[in-house]
Structure formats: structure tokens, C-alpha cells
């Protein structure tokens, strides 16, 4: 139950038109006020929250301590609003009670059917089905829903359930009824075998979906967990033979979205022959990660950061992605794309756009995506001299020999595909003119991490540099947002070491998520699947956004491939090519993850 009401902070809603409590982190917690205990039977807390938000038009955020922050502009109005707030909610409750009475046959008006196309693949088994179960466990899915697996493999419903059950975990709060919930969830999972380009097989799927929908308004979500060369065939068949006739139909498309501007535009054109733009949900799972979503909250809801978020105070920004393993038998796909397409053009560039965008008009999806597109269109063409590419080679350490990239049997022996890339990018606008944005991504490096590092400028006329001889590079402040693993936000500051002398030390103001929050952070796929079901497009990529991203990287990729640029080789498990350090030095930058006090 809500402990208190507060109007001392002005804020917009966490989701456009929804309360913050609707996030997958907290779907069924803190959703009612103390006078809501008499809610009608059958009315779930999250339904009440949505209906209330839509009815009242209020913009509110439920805080961690249970307080409700509204957009009231004065203390006087906040005091008088409590009664009105109560009346509005009770009115919603009355309407809901009447609706429950009119639906005494136990059927609600709508249902959601989720079809995982490519259900026998690794992504579906390891990510999509576990994410759907987590949403079900947290009561984030509608009361009536059905999940269908669809792929070419011959399989029964029971065999699908056995396959899926092996990847489901009771990680969520480790509550006692997890096994029970798992059984209930698996009863909602079914399977249909068919070809991805068969109208007939999708028509058969449509018949099965209708049986489960039972005459309700049918909303249908198709998740394309299949290779990109069969996207269009599957979309064509699903659209013409298995679309909803009285509700919405949405399609989630996994990356890669083409290999360059030309193939991406062709894919978009083909998809739009069968779907409207608002039906296409291009998923980049990095946008669903907790710390990436928190990026705009950190910046726009904390007064201390927004004034500093410009060329005047920021010296450089670094986006770092590293994996401590290679392709390991999965090089066939990777060799066709490489690290620039696989990581930099989508994951890191999307994070950069969120980081650098201007304040959007609202938290509406289109307003946010408009600002991201402006950033991408303002970026300077990437020059080859501002790029370093590398490829890992075999290395023996501690008596263990790790194979090189071309030692992978699925990779051609003469492959020049980069497994590492570093680049300096620039945004030619008033806020960021002259600030280098450095990206670095690689496989088979010394550690696994994904982080954003913001290095601030030196203190002008630093007294302590003159008196104590501090290293200027080490003395600058640095904000680090660690996306994974061990999610954290920390700020490096200079501090006096206790004692009679004057000696400075670098200390961290640290927010470690595992220490501050007891709940486990949900997987990015949970958040993105929930957004797709709710129709929230904020974390999905729009077609013009995709065009702008590809136009930035396509000339670079063509130059690398047409001129057969030879990558710099680096040992498996190292910190990457030496050239990356020279690139940073060229722009008077030191990689933040290379210092001893990372």
C-alpha cells in the first residue's frame, strides 16, 4: 500500500501515459493507495493503475520508498488534490466493478497471443521464453494470453514444454510458488510446425490461435527469432494469413537490420509492403538494459548533471564493450557481419544517441526518437584515420592455449573480419562541438564489460596541481555508468587523505545496484517484450533512425572491405590492439578502463 502522497517534486510519468510502477521491474508492487483495498474482485492492480492514469490524465511517479510524486505545482494544490485523487480512483473502481459484473461469465474482452517464430533456436530458448515466464511470474501479462512456438522442427506441445522448462528459472525473489507458476505458464505454451514461407501453415496457426482466443478481441504479437534472409517471407505469411481481424498485430524484428544503408532500406521497404511502421518493433536488447534506461533519468531528473552535460565541462565520452571470449564455433554468422555491424552500429550508437540528445518535449516515444535522430544526423562522417580495427590471434596463458579467430572451423582461414574496433566520433552541434566520443568494442579481450565513461575537463588553475604536483589526467572527475556486469554508477572525485599533510587521493561516490536494491534486475528482453505488448515504442528503433545510423557507418564499412584493410592482430585475452591507445592519444584522451583505479 502507498505510504504517503507527495507533490514536492515535479516529474513526468515513467512510461508515456502510465505510472512508473508499470515497469517490468515492479509490475505488481506499490500500485494502490491505502483506500483501494476494496477493489472489485477480478480487477488486478496493474489494470487499476493503467485505467486511473488514463482517466485522470495525471502525471505521476511512484518512488522507491512508496511515495507518489505528482506534477502539482504548489503545496496548496497538493493538499486539496488528495480528496479529488481519491474520488477519481473510486470512480474508476466503480466502473471496474460494473464491468466485472457484466463479465460474470469469466471472459474479458481481449486476449494476447504471442507467437515465437523460430521457437527451436537458441535465442528463443535462452532469452524469449524465460523472459515471458518472468513477466507471467510478476503478473505483467494479461489475464488471457497464449504463447505459440512456430518453427520448421517437428515437435509436439509436450516436447516444446519440456524444451522450454529446461531454461526457465525461479530466480525471481526465489518465492515458494515458483514451481506452481512454472506449470501454469507451460500450460499456456503450444507449438505449431510449419515453413516460414508457407501461407497454408500460417493459416493453420491462425485457426489454432482463434480456438484459444475464444471469440475475444485478439491482439497478436509475432517475435521473429529467425535469420534475416527469411524475415520478409515470415512477415508476408503472418500478415496475410495470421493477423488479428479485430485487434492489433505487431511484429518484433531482431537485428541485424541489413548490412549497410542499401540492404537496410530494402528490408524496410519489403516489411512495409505488409506492415505499417507502427506495427514494426525493431529490437535492440541493449536499450532494455537497466542502466541504459536509467541514463535519461540520471540526466534529466538530477539538477547537478544537466548543466554539466556539454562541451563546456565534458572533455570526452567513452562507450566501451568487451567480451572475454571469442566466437568459439559460432563464427559463421559473425564473419558475415563483424564487430562494427554487430556492436558499434547498433548497441553503442544507440546508447550514444540517448546520451547526447537534447531534452525531449515529453517522454512520448516519438519525442524521444525525434531527438535521437537529430543527434545521428548531426554526426560528422567517420574518417578511416579515426578508426582502428583488430583481430584476435591464438595465445597461450597459464598453460592453456586459446585459439585465434581464424582457427575457428566456421571461419575462413583468410578472413579479415574485425573482431575489435575503436573509433572517434564527433557531433557537430552547439552542445557537443569538438568533444570526442570514443567507441571501443571487441571479442577475446581481458575482461567482460559494457560501460559509459564521462571524463570531465581539468579544473582551471588547479591550486592543488601547483602545490602538490598531482597528475592532471588522474585528477579530473569521471562519471562511470557500468551497464554490465555488476551494474553501478560511480563518480570519481578528488579527496584529501586524512592526516596532517596535504595529500590527495581519488575516491568513488558509488551506487552499486546489488547493494542498494534487493530485487534482481530484470533481463532486457523482459522489459522490451512488455513494452511491445503495451505498444510502448520508446526503446525500439524507428526506420529513419535506422537510416541515419547506417548512413554514418556504411562509407566506413565499404572502405574497410573494398580496400581489404588488414586488422591489427592482438593476443586472445589481452587489452586489444596497441593502435587503440594511439587513437585515444591522438585526441588527447586516455581510455578509462586502462587505469589501475577503474
From TrEMBL:
The keyword Acetylation is assigned to this record: no
Gene3D superfamilies in alphabetical order: Dihydrodipicolinate Reductase, domain 2, NAD(P)-binding Rossmann-like Domain
Top-level taxon of the source organism: Eukaryota
Entries under SUPFAM superfamilies matching the protein: Glyceraldehyde-3-phosphate dehydrogenase-like, C-terminal domain (SSF55347), NAD(P)-binding Rossmann-fold domains (SSF51735)
Compartments, record wording: Plastid, Chloroplast stroma
InterPro entries on file: G6P_DH (IPR001282), G6P_DH_AS (IPR019796), G6P_DH_C (IPR022675), G6P_DH_NAD-bd (IPR022674), NAD(P)-bd_dom_sf (IPR036291)
Coiled-coil residue spans: none
One of the GO BP terms on file: pentose-phosphate shunt, oxidative branch
Signal sequence region: none
One Gene Ontology term of the molecular function aspect: NADP binding
Pfam families reported for this sequence: G6PD_C (PF02781), G6PD_N (PF00479)
UniProt catalytic activity: D-glucose 6-phosphate + NADP(+) = 6-phospho-D-glucono-1,5-lactone + NADPH + H(+)
Pathway entry: Carbohydrate degradation; pentose phosphate pathway; D-ribulose 5-phosphate from D-glucose 6-phosphate (oxidative stage): step 1/3
Major place of residence: plastid
Class of this enzyme: oxidoreductase
Keywords attached to this entry: Carbohydrate metabolism, Glucose metabolism, NADP, Oxidoreductase
All copies of domain Glucose-6-phosphate dehydrogenase NAD-binding, residue ranges: 116-294
Annotated GO CC locations: chloroplast stroma
Family matches, as HAMAP family: G6PD
Protein name as annotated: Glucose-6-phosphate 1-dehydrogenase
Amino acid at each position: 500500500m502507498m505510504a504517503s502522497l507527495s507533490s514536492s517534486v515535479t516529474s513526468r510519468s515513467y512510461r508515456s501515459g502510465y505510472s512508473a510502477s508499470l515497469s517490468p521491474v515492479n509490475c505488481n508492487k506499490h500500485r494502490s493507495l491505502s483506500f483501494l483495498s476494496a477493489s472489485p474482485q477480478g480487477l488486478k492492480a496493474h489494470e487499476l493503475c493503467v485505467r486511473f492514469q488514463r482517466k485522470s490524465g495525471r502525471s505521476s511517479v511512484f518512488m522507491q520508498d512508496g511515495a507518489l510524486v505528482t506534477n502539482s505545482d504548489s503545496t496548496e494544490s497538493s493538499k486539496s488534490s488528495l480528496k479529488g485523487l481519491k474520488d477519481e480512483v473510486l470512480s474508476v473502481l466503480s466502473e471496474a466493478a460494473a464491468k466485472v459484473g457484466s463479465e460474470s461469465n469469466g471472459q474479458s474482452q481481449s486476449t494476447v497471443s504471442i507467437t515465437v517464430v523460430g521457437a527451436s533456436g537458441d535465442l528463443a530458448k535462452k532469452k524469449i521464453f524465460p523472459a515471458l515466464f518472468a513477466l507471467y511470474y510478476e503478473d505483467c501479462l494479461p489475464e488471457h494470453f497464449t504463447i505459440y512456438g512456430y518453427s520448421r522442427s517437428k515437435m509436439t506441445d509436450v516436447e516444446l514444454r519440456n524444451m522450454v522448462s529446461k531454461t526457465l528459472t525461479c530466480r525471481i525473489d526465489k518465492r515458494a510458488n515458483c514451481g506452481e507458476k512454472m506449470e501454469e505458464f507451460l500450460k499456456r505454451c503450444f507449438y505449431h510446425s510449419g515453413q516460414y514461407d508457407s501461407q497454408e501453415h500460417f493459416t493453420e496457426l491462425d485457426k489454432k490461435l482463434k480456438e484459444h482466443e475464444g471469440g475475444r478481441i485478439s491482439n497478436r504479437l509475432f517475435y521473429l527469432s529467425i535469420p534475416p534472409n527469411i524475415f520478409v517471407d515470415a512477415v508476408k505469411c503472418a500478415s496475410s494469413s495470421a493477423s488479428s481481424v479485430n485487434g492489433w498485430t505487431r511484429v518484433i524484428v531482431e537485428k541485424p537490420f541489413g548490412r549497410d544503408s542499401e540492404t537496410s532500406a530494402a528490408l524496410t521497404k519489403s516489411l512495409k509492403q505488409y506492415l505499417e511502421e507502427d506495427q514494426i518493433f525493431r529490437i535492440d536488447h541493449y536499450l532494455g538494459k537497466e542502466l541504459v534506461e536509467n541514463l535519461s533519468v540520471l540526466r534529466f531528473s538530477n539538477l547537478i548533471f544537466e548543466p554539466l552535460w556539454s562541451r563546456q565541462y565534458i572533455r570526452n565520452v567513452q562507450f566501451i564493450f568487451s567480451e572475454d571470449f571469442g566466437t568459439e564455433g559460432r563464427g559463421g554468422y559473425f564473419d558475415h557481419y563483424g564487430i562494427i555491424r554487430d556492436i558499434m552500429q547498433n548497441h553503442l550508437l544507440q546508447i550514444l544517441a540517448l546520451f547526447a540528445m537534447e531534452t525531449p518535449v515529453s517522454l512520448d516515444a516519438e519525442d524521444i526518437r525525434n531527438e535521437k535522430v537529430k543527434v545521428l544526423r548531426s554526426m560528422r562522417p567517420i574518417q578511416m584515420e579515426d578508426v582502428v580495427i583488430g583481430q584476435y590471434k591464438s595465445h597461450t596463458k597459464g598453460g592453456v592455449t586459446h585459439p585465434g579467430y581464424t582457427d575457428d572451423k566456421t571461419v575462413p582461414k583468410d578472413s579479415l573480419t574485425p573482431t575489435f574496433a575503436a573509433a572517434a566520433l564527433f557531433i557537430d552541434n552547439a552542445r557537443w562541438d569538438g568533444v570526442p566520443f570514443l567507441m571501443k568494442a571487441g571479442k577475446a579481450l581481458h575482461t567482460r564489460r559494457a560501460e559509459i565513461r564521462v571524463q570531465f575537463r581539468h579544473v582551471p588553475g588547479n591550486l592543488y596541481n601547483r602545490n602538490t604536483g598531482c597528475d592532471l589526467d588522474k585528477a579530473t572527475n569521471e562519471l562511470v555508468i557500468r551497464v554490465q556486469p555488476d551494474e553501478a554508477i560511480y563518480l570519481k572525485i578528488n579527496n584529501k587523505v586524512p592526516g596532517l599533510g596535504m595529500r590527495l587521493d581519488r575516491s568513488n561516490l558509488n551506487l552499486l545496484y546489488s547493494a542498494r536494491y534487493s530485487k534482481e534486475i530484470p533481463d532486457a528482453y523482459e522489459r522490451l517484450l512488455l513494452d511491445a505488448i503495451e505498444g510502448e515504442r520508446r526503446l525500439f528503433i524507428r526506420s529513419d533512425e535506422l537510416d541515419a545510423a547506417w548512413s554514418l557507418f556504411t562509407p566506413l564499412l565499404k572502405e574497410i572491405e573494398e580496400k581489404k584493410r588488414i586488422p591489427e592482430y592482438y593476443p586472445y585475452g589481452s587489452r586489444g590492439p596497441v593502435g587503440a591507445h594511439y587513437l585515444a592519444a591522438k585526441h588527447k584522451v586516455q581510455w578509462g578502463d586502462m587505469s589501475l583505479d577503474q
